[in-house]
């Protein structure tokens, strides 16, 4: 059994030395436990925050112990009455080939409904974040103009498409390369720009001449500042993530125009997907339907092998991924 440990706490950008590949024995289950052979593990930006030794909404990773995160795999040994060997389950012990867990910590999923990786992307936490953030937190209404940053990423690419499917008037996305911008246009975004091409404020103003009603923030910093300037009266921003800040060693000066929220009566609302499980039934109904009729696309970037999980994580922070970053264990 190979697993990835946290070898050191990064200051600024993590490197390969942040991680250590460790070999251990394949575990055996005790009463009520199962052993899962992981097939896919999720690689997520929030994992960067857990590498810092600070109090947050999830506890920090321990040094010299395996990292964890969402994973999916097949039960290969079971001492639990209600989970048979061969069952596909989702659970929270990624970053290792074999996971030992209490059966109660595993959720059975049906591998015939969708490819199993989809439970970690479009049908999982990623999809729910996009759906709940856009429709509940920002309360997007038909006809509105929506701007989303990190738009070619896992959450962002779904936000833009769901906005169109729910009747947005105009959807704009920003991303970090010409290939990603092209992908956004193919996904049905009305406008897209590469944020390296100039100040975000100018690119956004050109893409949204009539302003923005809803901003779905994945990036923070200059992107948030540009969105505040572009937002219309009573605009709403769902503050989902601020990936531009995760490796920063100094606080960002942006947004420098926060006072505009007063005159424009803006709402900036932070959220965590975990508080929005109440919308799961509507999410599953809508997203499953859109996947079935082909109106919703989802990209996955799949890196092969647990030994390459650190590289996948570093790549995610640099923007190597199109859609959801996953490791095939
Ligand atoms: P993504 O698939 O979007 O991957 C991250 C992307 O961020 C990269 O591909 C990169 O794309 C972009 N990026 C990295 N650095 C910068 C930068 N300095 N400026 C602009 N873009 C940058 O990840 P997810 O979809 O999983 O997550 C998106 C956001 O949502 C993150 O901020 C994450 O923390 C947050 N999140 C929040 C949740 C919540 O409950 N609030 C739940 C899930 C995610 P590019 O090439 O375009 O730069």
From TrEMBL:
Residues 15-327 form the Enoyl reductase (ER) domain. It comes from the Bacteria. CDD domains: PGDH. Keywords: Oxidoreductase. InterPro entries: ADH-like_C, ADH_N_2, ER, GroES-like_sf, MDR_fam, NAD(P)-bd_dom_sf. One of its GO terms (molecular function) is oxidoreductase activity. Its EC number is 1.-.-.-. It is an enzyme of class 1 (oxidoreductase). This is NADP-dependent oxidoreductase. It comes from Micromonospora parva.
């Amino acid at each position: 059994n190979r697993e990835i440990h946290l070898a050191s706490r990064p200051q600024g950008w993590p490197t390969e030395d942040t991680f250590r590949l460790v070999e251990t024995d394949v575990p055996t289950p005790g009463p009520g436990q199962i052993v899962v052979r992981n097939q896919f593990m999720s690689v997520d930006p929030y994992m960067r925050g857990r590498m810092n030794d600070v109090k947050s909404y999830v506890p920090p990773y321990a040094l010299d112990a395996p990292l964890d995160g969402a994973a999916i795999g097949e039960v290969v040994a079971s001492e639990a009455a209600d989970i048979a060997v061969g069952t596909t389950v989702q659970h929270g012990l990624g970053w290792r080939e074999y996971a030992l867990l209490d059966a109660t910590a595993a959720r059975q999923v049906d591998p015939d409904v969708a490819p199993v990786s989809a439970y970690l992307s479009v049908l999982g936490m990623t999809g729910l974040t996009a759906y709940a953030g856009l429709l509940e937190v920002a309360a997007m209404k038909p006809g509105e103009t929506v701007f989303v940053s990190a738009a070619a990423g896992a959450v962002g690419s779904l936000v833009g498409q769901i906005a169109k499917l729910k009747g947005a008037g105009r959807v704009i996305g920003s991303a970090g390369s010409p290939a990603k911008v092209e992908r956004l246009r193919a996904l049905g975004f009305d406008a897209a720009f590469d944020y390296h091409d100039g100040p975000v404020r100018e690119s956004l103003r050109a893409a949204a001449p009539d302003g923005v009603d809803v901003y779905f923030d994945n990036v923070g910093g200059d992107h948030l500042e540009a969105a505040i300037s572009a937002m219309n009266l009573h605009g709403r921003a769902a503050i989902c993530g601020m990936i531009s800040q995760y490796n920063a060693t100094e606080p960002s000066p942006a947004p420098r125009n926060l006072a505009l929220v007063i005159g424009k009566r803006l709402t900036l609302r932070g959220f965590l997907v975990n508080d929005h499980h109440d919308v799961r039934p509507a999410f599953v109904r809508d997203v499953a339907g859109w996947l079935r009729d082909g109106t919703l696309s989802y990209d996955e970037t799949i890196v092969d092998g647990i030994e390459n999980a650190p590289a996948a994580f570093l790549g995610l922070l640099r923007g190597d991924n199109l859609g959801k970053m996953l490791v095939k264990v």
